[in-house]
Design goal:
There is one protein chain. This protein has about 350 residues and is an alpha+beta fold. It contains 12 helices and 14 strands. The strands form 3 sheets. Strands 1-2-3-4-5-6-7 form a 7-stranded mixed β-sheet, sandwiched between helices. It has a 5-stranded mixed β-sheet with strand order 11-12-14-10-13. A hairpin with a 4-residue loop joins β5 and β6. α4 runs antiparallel to α7. The chain is globular, with a radius of gyration of 22 Å.
Length: about 350
């Protein structure tokens, strides 16, 4: 009970800070009350908010830092709450504000940005920026390219957490020192723990995946691109890939495992030395603006993933997250519920 009360006080405090930040722009007078009779619900805390003498009920959900993974979760869950969802966070960029507004997600941040659409009240403030200290020291070694490669291996094969560092270096193709640094950081953050008899265990897999999926599109994926190409329309439908050469990722992989999405882009993960074979064999033509993207496969097929036609659902999900298109939203939800949730229940 004390933990619950502490969480409620923390959410109320952050909400107060965010609403206070709006006062210079809106002359907003407000009162906030987290409903005392309500226990925390899965997607936020019920709260009564009074603005301009109008009273509203919200489900308040707090994220210290907003990212695309969390944006997607908000969009997926917005219709599951008894009251409208209100995101409270430290900072919403102008780009994120556009996406949230289009998705119908109301928000308030602590630097004065907000979108509240509860007739007759409409508040829309974008473009306020935080001080220089925001985000300082947030990029750890584990979230850089080499660290993300190791994290992916651990997500796919949790038992690798107990393997010697030298073996992990061989499996992932990264330097022994980088393996040691990344594993040390993972342990410091509670993702890897000692399990007795000199064994180690991977914990908090869902949270680790969230961090990985957030960082992958910006910190690793751009380094993997081997080229963009174009082919005849829907050329991929009749192709049976040799997984020893390449595997489908992104929208095509999502379409194949769900039978739902109509792909507009094609993503392939291929071995670098087999790229010419892949391109020539499928009559692809190099085109910087093409909708076919071929990336260097960054994992060991034998040790990390099986030889399926598609990459692991973890990576498919991250690819869709990088696209950031509402068109793929339902497919992303299906992948999460059908392929990923079961992995996280094991934590």
């Amino acid at each position: 009970m004390n933990t619950e009360r502490s969480c409620k006080e923390n959410v109320g405090m952050i909400l107060d800070r965010a609403l206070c930040a709006l006062q210079p722009a809106t002359s907003l007078e407000f009162r906030v009350e987290l409903l005392p009779e309500a226990c925390p619900i899965e997607h936020g805390y019920p709260a009564r908010v009074t603005m301009f003498e109008h009273e509203f009920l919200f489900c308040v959900i707090e994220h210290e830092h907003l990212n695309k993974f969390r944006e997607l979760q908000l969009l997926l869950n917005k219709d599951k709450t008894p009251y409208p969802l209100l995101l409270v966070t430290t900072y919403v960029t102008a780009e994120a504000a556009e996406r949230l507004q289009e998705g119908g997600i109301q928000f308030i941040d602590t630097v004065g940005n907000a979108f509240v659409n509860q007739p007759p009240v409409l508040i829309l403030v974008k473009g306020n920026r935080p001080g220089k200290q925001y985000g300082a020291n947030r990029t750890a070694h584990m979230y850089k390219g080499v660290g993300l490669k190791l994290m992916y291996a651990l997500l796919c094969r949790p038992e690798l957490a107990g393997r010697p560092y030298r073996e992990l270096a061989e499996i992932t193709g990264i330097a022994l020192g980088s393996v040691k640094n990344t594993m040390t950081e993972l342990a410091a953050k509670g993702y890897i723990v000692e399990a007795g008899m000199q064994k180690k265990r991977l914990l908090k897999r869902k949270e680790l995946f969230e961090r990985w999926a957030e960082a992958y599109p910006d910190n690793l994926k751009p380094k993997l691109v081997m080229g963009r190409f174009r082919g005849v329309d829907n050329w991929w439908r009749d192709i049976r890939l040799d997984s020893g050469i390449a595997q489908w990722g992104g929208e095509v992989a999502a379409a194949k495992i769900t039978g739902y999405l109509k792909p507009e882009t094609v993503t392939l993960y291929a071995d670098k030395d087999r790229l010419p074979e892949l391109v020539i064999g499928n009559r692809l033509q190099k085109d910087p603006q093409g909708n076919i993207e071929i990336l260097n496969r960054f994992w060991d097929m034998e040790a990390v993933a099986d030889k399926r036609e598609t990459v692991h659902p973890f990576l498919i999900y991250a690819d869709l997250l990088a696209i950031g298109d509402e068109r793929t939203l339902e497919t992303t939800r299906m992948i999460y519920e059908n392929y990923l949730e079961g992995c996280f229940r094991q934590d």
